[in-house]
Design a protein that fits this description.
7 strands; 128 residues; 1 helix; seven-stranded antiparallel sheet; 12% helix; mainly beta
Amino acid sequence: MYYLTDSNRSSNQDTTPYNKMQPIETTDKFITKEYFIYNKKDHIINAYTSDNRAPTDGGRFYYTLDTFGIIYLRSTTWPTCMRLQSNNDSLNNLFSSALGHILLKPKLHCNCDSITKIMFVPPVTKEE
């Protein structure tokens, strides 16, 4: 198994070996979990973020599936993501189904308090 990295900063897709993925940190914040059925079997997606402890622009949201570990990861700042792939079509179909749940279920989207909200502040003008 391996991870595909997509970025809109380049048109290339990079790969990372499965065993080279950064481990899940115990200090990362658990967001929620979602159960779904695929091929008559129960599966669990857990959602986490490192935004609570990461340096500026270093945070990530990631999702684990059953015992596979991280199957989808995206930066909280940069337009990049990683997704788990395999040479096994059955596993890829399971990963695709899980990714569909991740993308389409609002419950799995982070509404973290630590995410910065950008507000417009009008410029100060000097009175003459």
